[in-house]
Design a protein that fits this description.
This is NodT family efflux transporter outer membrane factor (OMF) lipoprotein. Keywords: Lipoprotein, Membrane, Palmitate, Signal, Transmembrane, Transmembrane beta strand. It is found in: Cell membrane. By secondary structure, the protein is an alpha+beta fold. It folds into 2 domains: 346 residues, Up-down Bundle (Outer membrane efflux proteins (OEP)); 86 residues, Outer membrane efflux proteins (OEP). The protein is 61% helix and 11% strand. The protein is built from 11 helices and 6 strands. Strands 1-4-5-6 form a 4-stranded antiparallel sheet, with no helix packed on it. The longest helix is centred in the C-terminal third of the chain and has 68 residues.
Length: 481
């Protein structure tokens, strides 16, 4: 008969063979590298690599002290920013959790139990034949007391745990970039809302000045009617126009209240008046924005950097999922004391407890869950690559659109400005002609209405110019530093 001890090498060879087979049967997964060809320059823009607008801090790009104060308040009180800060804290703690997984674990333990076994069992029969020195008879209720140190360590042979930690680091950095992107959007939204508020103030002032002009015209029409040079129809038409514009002021005031409430919400405050500049809105000049070159978007836009980090994390996730097919190795050890009575607990070496074990395990059959997670990791990697490409293309589109928008709005503003000047002059001429009965009252009314609409359009165009400048600054990746 072959000795039992000789069977161990054969069994060991069989186990190692199974582990080797398991490690060699890793399925393939499809991954993808991101490819985004972008041109060297933006259309209709000069390549300025020395002073790109995105490199300017928001408190340098904007100069209005009231706007700067609103942005400062929002960065401290905005609820969405504060929520994201807590997500960043969670991601930072996840790094520590992942780091601890590939380091040895040592625990201190203390335990006690009482057990009584049946007499007609193997343990019961064994206890029946034993004697304890002091009491001679074996105790009916056997107490087990133990304490010591217990260690375990999973050997990170395939770098699965270390890669998982790198994934946590990349996800943390991506969360930080997500915060920067949120701040960029927040700064831009507050600036857009602030300029919209100034535009509404200017529109309200324009309506009130037009009402004053129409009231003067109404006074003249009343005098002309008294002198028999006009009729009641003209008086009523002028009165109706005055009332129409007075009712329009309430709409504008409601729009002002709505924008003020939006700004207060963004800054984390309750509804109330918003302090703002009282300068002439049309005198505000859009800031010149240096666009730089498209490749600078890759390092200036937080959303692109976030997508890049998420893509890198997805790449490592594939390696982490692949390691689940490979054997895992672990070491377990224990050192302490164990006895059934406190009086024997610290006797050495009789009560000394010592254990050391190692194990290796690999999945052999029914690996569906592991394979599914591996395929999912590959699909997420491909998805992250497409999302990165989409983010870059969207960033380029936004910059190109705003560059074109700024140029077209500048031309439109110049023409509208000339139109307003002509209509202001036409109002004076029509009033003089009407007073000398050389023009109909309808001509005066239509001229005043056209002038009001033209100046309103001019204010709207200036607001769009300022908004386009802010949007271009945001699209270039500015506003978060």
């Amino acid at each position: 008969m072959i000795p039992t001890c000789c069977n161990y090498p054969a069994g060991l060879v069989a186990v190692v063979s199974l582990l080797f087979i398991a490690s060699c049967s890793v399925p393939q997964v499809v991954t993808r590298a991101a490819e985004v060809p972008i041109p060297d320059t933006f259309p209709a823009a000069t390549a300025d690599t020395t002073e790109i607008a995105a490199g300017r801090r928001w408190d340098d790009f904007f100069t209005d002290p009231y706007l700067l104060g609103l942005i400062d308040t929002a960065l401290v009180n905005n609820k969405e920013v504060n929520i994201l800060l807590q997500r960043i804290a969670v991601a930072r703690n996840e790094i520590q959790a992942r780091k601890g997984e590939y380091l040895p674990t040592v625990n201190a333990g203390l335990g006690t139990e009482v057990e009584k076994v049946g007499r007609y069992t193997r343990n019961g029969a064994l206890e029946e034949s034993l004697e304890i020195n002091e009491d001679r008879a074996f105790p009916e209720f056997l107490t087990n007391i133990q304490f010591g140190l217990y260690a375990s360590w999973e050997l990170d042979v395939w770098k699965q745990l270390r890669n998982a930690r790198k994934v946590a680091v990349l996800e943390y950095l991506a969360t930080v970039e997500g915060r920067n992107f949120l701040i960029t959007n927040l700064v831009a939204e507050i600036a857009d809302s602030y300029f919209e508020l100034l535009a509404l103030d200017s529109e309200l002032d324009n309506i009130e000045r037009n009402i004053a002009i129409q009231e003067d015209a109404l006074r003249v029409v009343n005098l002309m009617q008294q002198a028999g040079r006009s009729n009641t129809l003209a008086v009523r038409r002028f009165e109706a126009e005055v009332q129409k514009n007075r009712s329009e002021t309430y709409r504008v005031r409601q729009d002002i209240a709505a924008v003020e409430n939006r700004i207060n919400f963004l800054t984390g405050r309750l509804p109330g008046p918003v302090a703002r500049t009282s300068d002439d809105f049309l005198a505000l000049q859009p800031v010149s924005v240096a666009t730089g070159i498209p490749s600078q978007l890759l390092r200036n836009r937080p959303d692109i950097r976030q997508a890049e980090l998420e893509m890198a994390a997805a790449d490592l996730d594939v390696d982490v999922a692949r390691a689940n097919f490979l054997p895992s190795f672990g070491i377990r050890a224990g050192l302490g004391y164990q006895a059934f009575n406190l009086r024997y607990l610290l006797k050495t070496p009789e009560s000394l407890l010592l254990s050391l074990a190692g194990d290796a395990m690999a999945p052999l059959v029914n690996r569906n869950a592991i394979e599914a997670e591996y395929q999912n990791a590959g699909a997420r990697q491909v998805q992250a690559a497409y999302e990165y490409e989409q983010t870059v293309l969207d960033a380029y589109r936004e910059v190109a659109t705003e560059i074109s928008n700024i140029d077209k709005l500048a031309d439109a503003y110049r023409l509208k400005e000339e139109q307003v000047a002509m209509l202001d002059e036409a109002i004076e001429v029509s009033n003089k002609l009407f007073q000398s009965t050389r023009a109909e009252y309808l001509e005066v009314l239509l001229t005043q209405r056209d002038a009001l609409e033209a100046r309103t359009d001019l204010i709207e165009t200036r607001k769009e110019q300022l908004a386009a400048t802010v949007n271009l600054y945001q699209a270039l990746g500015g506003g978060w530093k």
